[in-house]
Amino acid sequence: MVKRSAILCAGATFICSTLTACGGSGGGAEGSPAPETQQPSGVTISAPKDAMAMDRCGLLPPDAATGLGLAAQGKEQSDPLDPEAPSSCVWNSEDGKNRLSLTPLDGRSIQAYYDNKSKYVDFQDLSIAGHPSVRANQGDPKQDGTCDIFLATKEGQILSAQAHVMDTSQDACGIAQKALEAAVATLPASK
User: Fold this and answer.
1) What's the CA angle centered on 156, arms 25 and 148, to 5 degrees?
2) How many whole angstroms separate alpha carbon 106 and alpha carbon 159?
């Protein structure tokens, strides 16, 4: 009974954090406030890409998904709390223990995360596939099993990756980062 409760609790936490991360008012796991700005960021993106130009579930190539232990094909999901929020694509592992969602967010700058880094318990400045990125989490990914990484695809656009693992000995941040690396390689150039 305790094990079942722990699984249900972890699943509910993930669903809530996914909805918050993907919603227009969310910004990361566990209800962190969304940094919002549409002003130029001052961050240089040398090879801008357009994540909004692709089908959500085409963002992660099937071979990359299976290489991460996930189903080859993801499923698009809308935010039931905010129908106006951008939808995400979610990939699950066969056993249901691991989950990854990718969400393109238009009208959001990476600079907003830098400006609000003190709001995150876990914050790290990254470069993924040559794009400025941040790891921004309200909790400790190693303890929570959930990790949010935000990558600037172009000025005013972010590609969000959230990974959740039931076994916290696995690296949720590693999954999110590898997914973004694979996704960026397939994105069309920004027009």
Assistant:
1) 50
2) 9
Residue type present at position 66: T
> What sign for the dihedral angle of Cα 88, 182, 130, 140?
positive
Whole-angstrom distance, CA of residue 147 vs CA of residue 149: 7
Residues 173-185 pLDDT 10s:
999 999 999 999 9
Q: Are strands 75-77 and 146-154 parallel, antiparallel or unpaired?
A: unpaired
Rounded to two decimals, what is the model's pTM? Answer: 0.78
Could you give the CA distance from residue 134 to residue 126 in angstroms, rounded to a whole number?
5
Contact between 71 and 3 (Cβ < 8 Å): no
Angle made by CA atoms 92, 95, 98, in degrees to the nearest 5: 45
